[in-house]
Amino acid sequence: MSVLSLRDLTVTYQTRGGGLPAVRGVDLDVNRGEVVGLAGESGCGKSTIAGAILRMLPDGTDIGGEVLLDGEDVLKMKVGRLRAVRWKDASIIFQGAMHSLNPVQRVGRQVAEAYITHNPGKEKEAQARVTKLFEQVGLTEGRVGDYPHQLSGGMKQRVMIAMALACDPKIVIADEPTTALDVMVQAQVLRLLKKLQADLGLSMIFITHDLSVLVDVCDRIAIMYAGKIVEQGRAKAVFETPEHPYTKALAGAFPDIGDDRYRLAPTGLGGDPPDPADIPSGCPFHPRCAERFEGCDTTVPDLYPAGEGRRAACLLVRDRSDA
Amino acid sequence: MTQAPGGTRTESLLEVRDLKVVFAAQAGLLSGLQGGKSRYARAVDGVSLDIRPGEILALAGESGCGKTTLARTVLGLERPAQGEIRFEGEPIGSSTRKLRGYRRKVQMIFQDPSGALNPRQTVYESVAKGLRIHKVAGDEERLVAQALSQAGLRPPERFFMRYPHEVSGGQRQRVIIAGALALQPELLVADEPVSALDASVRGEILKLLLKLRDELGLAILVVTHDLGLAWMIADRVAVMYLGRIVEIGPARQILKDPQHPYTQALLSVVSDSEGLEQIILRGEPPDPTRIPGGCRFNPRCQIVASGKAAELGIEERCRTQDLALEEITSGHSAACHVLSAASGKPGNSSPT
Predict the structure, then answer these.
(1) B203 touches chain A (CB under 8 A)
(2) What torsion, rounded to 10 degrees, do the Cα atoms A115, A118, A120, A123 define?
(3) Which of A259, A263, A268 sits opposite B203 (nearest CB)?
(4) Any idea which architecture A2-89+169-322 has in CATH?
(5) Could you say which residues from 47 to 86 on chain A have a Cβ atom under 8 Å away from some Cβ of chain B?
(6) Range(s) for CATH 3.40.50.300 in chain A?
């Protein structure tokens, strides 16, 4: 059974100019012990999904569909129940850890409080838990008493990871957890996340714009564009043999170094990802698509089957599977 | 003309010789009052390199390695503590007049196109700004139109009256590039030219840089943390670590057959190739106010850490002897005692 299921999830932000549809009908399942990647560019809705799962979006935002956490719909939970679930059943590692920590509180204390919130009065256990967590994330015990400014970016991200794991959550949502870090530190943090995932059997949603990172970490990935999933499947297959023209373009931005196809031959798309307030008709990708044909501007594509466990929202894929 | 490591004997457009840039890292107020001393950050600590006309050189490394400081110094925005920069054989000098002429021929492309454009200026005004500052003679409108069209904004007249928010992110970066091209430079210095752009848009801008090189013969110094970008556009790659170039050579050689352990580690963590074991270095990039003695990479070096350096009997050298770049094959140099030991040479001690 899935730890987390999104069913026709829609999110519409309210702005002065009217409703802004950021997520427009997303279905996604994360099985126990599985890591699912969510990739796409700014404005595609991937971080909005993270916010919707834990209901951390601005007041007044319309969320439709279902977010089933172990079968229970998060969107229907009362505030008290929601508070109990956050951090304990589902936790989140934010992008830009550097700014998410309280600058005037010792980092060990911050991790302890994440535990105590859900285990009131268990001060002693909290201390023991912090010691164990610091060890798990590769921080020396001496760091418990440090303030955030005494830590490097990579260490702060480790503190964030410790905090996310404090209450043994069923699922961890990692939203661009390595984006602001240098490549070598990024590699250290990714190795840590992979190890923790394997050791603890964590279920995870891993959100990033960097497709090459996802391939390394995820079992499956979903590519988003203009608030919808446009392709999903096994991570490696999606990255190496993309079906959707958008996935092809995105994969081209992260070439395999040494691959002669990319040597002195960068590939890219014109235009920008669409403005959520002004999403093109038909397939939202059609104005930028090199392979568009008649019908792309009028027919909204479904996710059509494209091989084992693979789906892509492109009329080319539909026509191929019809043939 | 002297020859820089990793260069060949072609006339250079830009020559950087033994450049050092030092910043005073102020002691904090409290420790200052207690008599604490300021420390010095050796941001660029002895760099020599050449750029030839029409060449794209990628300067790669992690944050804090000194690559941006080096680029800013090349632009005349930082004053070197030591060393020399020559452009077309002439020292760039420090007098305002000399610098102004130089700054017309060497143009900067900034990282974030949204931040670099004035939101209240039209595309035309933004591109014409440089022409006015440098008091360039000629038909301004024609020059602006030509620059926009070279940057791929065609027909240029359609963009004249637009404001930055009315064009796409990729187009904003093209406006910045047009502003540089209007002055008919010979060298572009591009600091992370695509890292603020959406991934799908980056390729178009990189294609444009290649095209400008091919069609206008522009030389480009690209500062980047992204070795994939170097693979896509650079002729040569220089890898920096703690203020020094540790390896430099033709892009294909550096990126397919790196010789310096640092380059090997960097590539191993960004490469998808199966079977290539990731070399994840410990710790964070060290602090330029505390550059380690010996080979500056030794505290993080996987060859030292694994004991292989000791096996080869050179660990002592790694820990105590600074070293300069040494040519491995023609045009490809690296600064590593292991390589020097393998080539039977004793490992140059640094000239500086």
Answers:
(1) yes
(2) -10
(3) A268
(4) 3-Layer(aba) Sandwich (3.40)
(5) none
(6) 2-89+169-322
